[in-house]
Amino acid sequence: MSDPRLAALQAKLAGNDAAGARAAADAMLADTELAPADRFVALVLRARAHEMAGNLQGAIVDLDGATALDPRNARAWNELGLLCADAGLAERAVAAFERATRVDPKYARAWNNLGNALRSAGRIAEALHAAERAVDADATY
Length: 141
What we know:
By secondary structure, this protein is mainly alpha-helical. Helix content is 78%, strand content 0%. The chain has helices at residues 5-14, 18-29, 36-52, 56-69, 74-86, 90-103, 108-120, 124-140. The radius of gyration is 16 Å and the shape is elongated.
């Protein structure tokens, strides 16, 4: 069962209370008894709080921690890629999107984001291939 503190953390994010959400996540993550699945969610939510507050580096660090806990979570890899792209870390964004597409080859959004990141990096042929994969993945859902 998921930790009830996660609901309070999500409510703070929904209320645009980045500082409150970050503090709630910090308290949860300090709990050495926190289940790994709940730790993963707390890291993802704290990353969103950091992003909301304009701290992209803090958000990236948290998503690095989340993907280390669950390297098979394509959405976390995709979110990490988006943050890296926003932070101007183009090659790191490409690597995160590539990981997301390896974890879930049918994840059209990750393929689309990979194409955008490759295009931004000037890797046009690869970007076109990723765009084709996005269309193929979207068609299979």
